[in-house]
Amino acid sequence: HMSNILLLDIQCAMNFKNGHHIRQNVETEPRTAEAERMDDYEKTSAACVFIRQHTTIRPQVGIICGSGLGNIVDRVANQVVIPYSTIPGFPACTVLGHEGKFVFGELGGKSVVVMQGRFHPYEGYSHRMIALPIRVMKMLGAEYLFVTNAAGGMNRTYKPGDMVIIQDHVDFSSLVGLNPLTGPNDERFGPRFPDLIGIYNSELRELAHRCGRDLGLEDCLHEGIYFHAAGPVYETPATNRILLNLGCDAIGMSTTQETIVARHMGMKIFAISMITNLDTVDEKAGIVPNHEEVLQMANLQGPLLAQLLEKMITCL
Fold it and tell me: Care to name a GO molecular-function term for this sequence (predicted)?
């Protein structure tokens, strides 16, 4: 009798969820490395085929918008909008402040594709899934990748609203194997062991400083080290003290995995953080970070960042 009860419990757990019948597909044989490798390339190709059916624009520059920083789209002319939900194999954005669409058009005299909404591992997506849109942009023709993010300020000289050009990053996730390139490598994307020295293009960083001076942004434009935190929790004061001692200037929950994929494919990368809040190192300070605060500051200062990016793209 006990075995019958146990079997019934297992069947109920497998077959019902929230009152709906669930049918589970179980693979009888493990997937081969070759099958996984082909899947990545075929998914990327299928997405590109679909997009090419809906626009003739061949982007030179790819742009990724961080939380609340999607207003650069307002500067894009001759727009063609393609929601992620219509593209084969694409996931959906689940985070407030991320629209979930590609916007193709012209910015600064260049053809661009803007990724208005990005994907994060904390949403439950695999690191390989996060690689998909970057590979699509490159396969469509983009040679440059401009990445923005909303970040917490670690450096004590920063203030909310400042912008930090990313010179280099620290990514513990990659050090413990949670890397977007983990798994079978496809040489059509890039080499097995890519080099990350100089991942953030020095010429683009210098260009950002020049354009920033032209726009009168010297006082709020910095250059520093970005730390990638997996999220979705904000960091404890003890964690922040450690990262500050390591020399990290800004901290956020995105960017590094996207730039690793872009580097793997040979793209020239520029990344910049909008400091939306200051990370506390003292639990008695009474500072509690929240996503609404992040979006509010990003929306307030986003137009300045969009202006900087447009001027940079004009100069490419």
Answer: purine-nucleoside phosphorylase activity
